[in-house]
Design goal:
By secondary structure, the chain is of the alpha+beta class. The chain contains 8 helices and 28 strands. 37% of the residues are buried.
Length: 407
């Protein structure tokens, strides 16, 4: 609930109505933004133990082969494969230890002049040093050759790739104790006279600032540096100053609230004043998230997201994530999709794309239908169901594909 200045009237003017009629399909809006938002971000350095979740600023390559020496993959003996031809339990090959056959542990180097490893359980060593081999081996058997794991020059990590524990282990194998990372900074602002900090007890008509912390966590999950810049009241001058400071000091700005067309919603006019080209899109053919604002100020991304928590979160996932990924130069990651059966019907309006949080359990998809101010549905969900513009709804038992949330 917004607090009106004395003498003000809550209304939507003719120009505002026209703005909300000029809405775009999601793909069209993203394409427009991609053309006007620059890829940016500075390069920094992180110790490898601090690299988890960071974004690589450039491609990193193998400076040597892995392994850099031929090594055994088994405990056993190195030998020449030809010396085991015809070996069996009844007629084993008899080889001299230290001359024709050499003991080796898993990971150990292969002795010069040998080309295979026989597993320990197929051998028997006699007191005089003779080793009996009871089965033949092929050339290269149980040996990891030089560069067989990773050839020299292989790209280990691409520019824009998020560093996982698996990728860090690979980099450690090649001596990367320090990693070049991309420092892309995002400022997160919340707007509205009714918003109070999470540490405060809200009074009647007030709500805690939920959106900032969802957006902050989402950005951190993406490997971006996010800062919560606080709450801006419904005042055009203060909003302009906050956004101007944001685009001056940061690479992108996310603003929740004030994106609709009421008399206290200043986001569009303020973003247009910040710099060219300003507002690119105001209004998307999606639910929730119709009043979303997509803007660019001197090549920097500025987004106006809905204020209701569920609307903000789902729009951030479907709109902010791909645009931030583009602006930060992140490697495109395909979502994890799972299949299931819808347990109840869902109605939808043609010409609008619906995004619905769902709970998937044992192949059953439970839609968590709720109003846009709800946050509990998002917390209980583990996936997102999308109903495209051309669909009038889904029936009970329909086979659906669900995007699984990244935790």
């Amino acid at each position: 609930m917004r607090t009106l200045p004395k003498g003000a009237h809550l209304f939507i003017g003719v120009d505002d109505l026209r703005l909300l009629q000029d809405i775009k399909r999601l793909e069209e809006a993203l394409a427009i933004a991609f053309a006007h938002v620059d890829v940016r971000g500075r390069e920094g350095k992180r110790a490898i133990e601090e690299g988890l979740g960071c974004v690589s600023s450039r491609g990193l390559f193998a400076g040597s082969p892995l392994p850099h020496f031929a090594r055994s993959t088994m405990d056993g003996y190195c030998l020449r494969a030809a010396d085991t031809n015809g070996a069996s339990e009844s007629i084993p090959a008899m080889l001299a230890r230290g001359v024709e056959i050499h003991p080796v542990l898993t990971g150990g180097p292969i002795a010069a002049g040998t080309d295979a490893v026989v597993m320990l359980e197929y051998t028997e060593e006699l007191e005089d040093g003779t080793v009996l081999v009871s089965r033949p081996v092929a050339v290269g058997e149980n040996i990891l050759a030089v560069g067989e794991d990773v050839p020299q020059g292989t790209e280990l990590v691409r520019a824009g790739e998020i560093l996982t524990a698996r990728k860090l282990a690979l980099l450690a194998a090649f001596g990367y104790d320090e990693i070049p990372v991309r420092d892309f900074r995002v400022l997160i602002l919340s707007s509205g006279n009714e918003i109070v900090p999470v540490s405060e007890q809200p009074s009647l008509g007030q709500v805690r600032d939920i959106n900032a912390y969802y957006l902050h966590a989402m950005c951190c999950r993406m490997g971006l540096s996010a800062v919560c810049g606080g709450i801006v009241p419904d005042d055009a001058t203060q909003l302009y100053e906050a956004l101007l400071g944001g685009i001056t000091q940061y690479d992108a700005v996310l603003l929740s609230g004030g994106s609709s067309a009421g008399s206290l919603d200043y986001s569009r006019s303020v973003i247009d004043r910040l710099g060219t080209p300003g507002v690119l899109v105001h209004g998307l053919m999606i639910k929730p998230g119709k009043p979303t604002i997509v803007g660019s100020c001197h090549g920097k991304l500025v987004l106006g997201l809905p204020g209701h928590p569920l609307s903000c979160a789902l729009t951030a996932h479907t709109v902010a994530r791909p645009l931030l990924s583009h602006a930060a130069g992140l490697v495109k990651r395909e979502p994890l999709m799972i299949e299931g059966r819808l347990v109840r019907p869902i109605a939808s309006a043609p010409g609008r794309r619906d995004h619905i949080p769902v709970l998937v359990e044992r192949g059953n998809v439970f839609p968590l239908l709720s109003k846009s101010a709800s946050i509990s549905a998002l917390a209980r969900s583990n996936g997102l169901l999308t109903i495209d513009e051309g669909c009038e709804g889904l029936s009970e038992g329909a086979a659906v594909s669900v995007e699984f949330w990244e935790e």
